[in-house]
């Protein structure tokens, strides 16, 4: 921390000085991130981070004054680690931090910064739960704008869908106001996936990332509505199962996509429940798909498939 603070006062005369300062700050932020993660993973050491959190955060906020993407990336990642370590107490930093989160989300040119900012918002949601709510209108507005923009690098879009799930899990039934525009964009992205060239390896990698993130978004939204307003997802249930069916027929999908698809099916059956009985009876692919998953060598996938099978069986038997 002391070393990072000292970099703020380094004499900057030339561009070379500025670059050296940025390099040093990025490196020190990276070191702090690792320290925060290591200490916060131990119950006996976590209080050290909590006690010093104000000073650490003050330093990170000062670092944002250095207009360097590499510094911003490392500082953001360290802030994500600090959010995890401090939990709901992190909310006190949000008023000042929020402008930098907004700047990160709007940084299309340095899209890695944008992508990392999206991930850190997910970290903050997991730390704050409902306390993130006052910031959600602006966050969701920016995320939706980003997804609709042709100027944003496509690699940022899958993390945004995953972030929808993080936000929904954090705020629960309050996600109602966002569900229609969010799912509409998810449906559009699912359609794009269906039209991608399966012979282009790079494009297929992207399609897999996109499909996995859409399923993760569905799961997060469904779980967020589990204790209240589950019926809000009923209008989208058929599309979700159609998307799962489409993916189940694709031999080029990777295991992470399969796992996310199976989990989303299980969440649909678990959360929306009896109302989906007829749908699951109509979509006959489910049994075959789940049986295929149960034969996988991936133990996690088998566990998820068994759980999903149980959720569906509870409805249709």
UniProtKB/TrEMBL annotation:
Domain of life where this protein originates: Eukaryota
Occurrences of domain Importin subunit beta-1/Transportin-1-like TPR repeats (ranges): 3-282
GO BP: any one term: protein import into nucleus
Cellular compartments annotated: Cytoplasm
GO cellular component: cytoplasm
Entries under InterPro entries matching the protein: ARM-like, ARM-type_fold, IMB1_TNPO1-like_TPR, Importin_beta
Swiss-Prot/TrEMBL keywords: Cytoplasm, Protein transport, Repeat, Transport
Predominant subcellular localization, coarse grouping: cytoplasm
Protein name: Importin subunit beta-1/Transportin-1-like TPR repeats domain-containing protein
